[in-house]
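Lab notes, practical 5.
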Amino acid sequence: MKDKYVIAIDGPAASGKSTTAKQLAKMLHYVYIDTGAMYRACGLQTLKQNISLDDLDSLAEMLQDINIRIEYAAAGNRIFLDGIDVSERIREADITRLASEIAIIGIVRDKMVDLQRKMGENGGVIMDGRDIGTVVFPEADFKFFMVADVKTRSLRRWQEAKDKGENLDLAAVEAELCWRDKNDSTRSHSPLRQAKDAISIDTSAMSIAEQVAYIYQVIQEGKKNV
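Output from the prediction step:
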């Protein structure tokens, strides 16, 4: 029986995977690797260096030197770009859309996948994203694919923004999620799709606590088979 596992949680935006992954990591004493934050940091770097996403040469040069670091903190992981804490900045609306756009670029995904594999090569990690179980770690010990209807996901994202003091239009949030779903699932490089051996979980009617409890139970029961 292995001591440390690689756990992959994939799914569309606002399906609950990130919050669930963070809480599972605490329960299991694992490292949570926020792959979405890595793409957001890449997007922010293009803004800082005024690089067009069409300029593949400049993007390649940027990726050679980019320094992304994820540090554990009790209140939530902190993301550092070139030594600067950008945890709040990368969650802003302009970076959210930019991250989805940059994530379809092959050289960017290749670089991020390489970094993610190095982070998880010794196990004891939980990663969530769009292609963790299909591309980054196709041999992950446990794979989950979380979904929820777009109305539920839109309300969740709207409520999150409201709790932060942001005043967003619910219809606009839903339109943004629909755009991201299409962008993620139709891109040519590492599209969003469920791995054949992943366990599908519809979280539409589930609380975060229920999601965490269910996945934790599956992992505990499945350990003897890994």
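Observations recorded by the TA: The mean pLDDT is 92. Residues 80 and 86 are 6 Å apart (CA to CA).
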